[in-house]
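Before relying on records like the one below, remember that each one covers exactly one chain. Contacts with other chains, cofactors or solvent are not represented anywhere in the record.
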Amino acid sequence: MSFPSVEEQLTVIKRGTVEIVPEHELIDKLKKSIKANKPLRIKLGVDPTRPDLHLGHSVILRKLRQFQDLGHEAILIIGGFTAMIGDPTGQNKTRPPLTPEEVEENAQTYIEQARKILDEEKTTLVNNNDWLGEMTFMDVVKLSSNLTVARMIERDDFSKRYKNNETISLHEFLYPLAQGQDSVYLKSDVELGGTDQKFNLLVGRDLQRSDGQDPQICLMMPLLAGTDGSMKMSKSYDNYIGIDEPENDLYGKVLSIPDDLIYSYFELVTDVPVDELNLIKQKIKKDPRNTKHDLAFTLTRMYHGKEAAKNARNHFEQTVINKNIPDDAPVIEFEAGSTHRLLDIISDANLTSSNGETKRMMKQGGISLEEEKIQDPNFEIKFEKGQELALKVGKRKFAKLKS
């Protein structure tokens, strides 16, 4: 195996990276890797708390893929055990633990989607329940002796809750130890995580030292801002772009991000080469609109293919720019002379998930009939013979109503 030079590897590794702790040790590890012709072991742990991945998740998965492309060993840990504890990181209170059945179901979906980013043949997939689940109570007590309560309280979210007299359960202190024990068991050289995972990653270094291992390098990536431009991307905030979104939805959602996020999205979630990023930065200043279309095309191409990306761009131009109803919009037929409530038509056609969502969209002006916004949930249509009406639901759903 032949590795790129240390300088070449660092250029790729540092792309979009917020912090490397410590960088000089990473350089030493890369030098030893090249000299011994032996790949580094790069660890990423994920708790399958939700089944669907979005671009925010892809930030760290793409960094793992970059290490793979440099010739290193990628180890993806499915947190079968830690997901049942519940990680309080970034939360005001502990995250609810999952049942083994929920973990297994979510894990399968997570793995299937992660394969869209990672090189499956070069990925070692493990489940930390295989070793954490085998530990005895005495093992846990011994592990706990490696860290003090004072050190745990240094963690930002614990510190805030302690000062606010909010409850901190003892099992929450065990989560960083469990994650750190993963590093000991796997003898990882580098662990990847978001900036909110820094404390947990550093615990892994401490436990590896206690075990007589060379401590891992901690590499932190930023938390991707969602389509609202302020909060981190999350389904909870409804500002996410799923990597499994239909191509038209993916393309359209990318175009909805603020202009000041265009560059960070190119840097963090696309496969655009590093040496092209400066050119993109200049293009954003001159022509943000078309550069954003380039971003939407790139991401749609990455997850659906080039032909689908072309179709998505054409669909957007037809429906949004030219305000035409797409040719492939579903046709819903009604008997001439019949009367139907628009709310029921939309729900029956599954254009929204529920009547509640339909009412909310109506109130917000998100539903149009023949380009006229309909905000009355009791609005009815009496169909006349030969009539055809264009219905638009939200930004990207259409239907033709015919009688």
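Residues 6-221 form a domain with the Rossmann fold fold (CATH 3.40.50.620).
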